[in-house]
Design brief:
The chain is mostly helical. The chain contains two helices and no strands. The protein starts with a helix and ends with a helix.
């Protein structure tokens, strides 16, 4: 898998998590721990995207 393909997949996952977080926030019965876990996963994806982009920038 190319780096660009991998970055695209991570970006899509990141965007999907953002939508899921927004939906969960607007549900009054939603568990705060679940929202925190979703945010943690989103941050992890963002860190991975940034790391890959930085490594790609140093290669070019």
């Amino acid at each position: 898998m190319s780096l660009q393909t991998h970055l695209s997949q991570l970006t899509r996952k990141h965007e999907a998590l953002e939508r899921e977080i927004q939906e969960a926030i607007h549900k009054p019965a939603e568990d705060d721990l679940r929202i925190a876990e979703l945010k943690r996963r989103k941050l992890h994806l963002k860190d991975e995207i940034n790391r890959l982009q930085a490594s790609a920038d140093t290669v070019h």
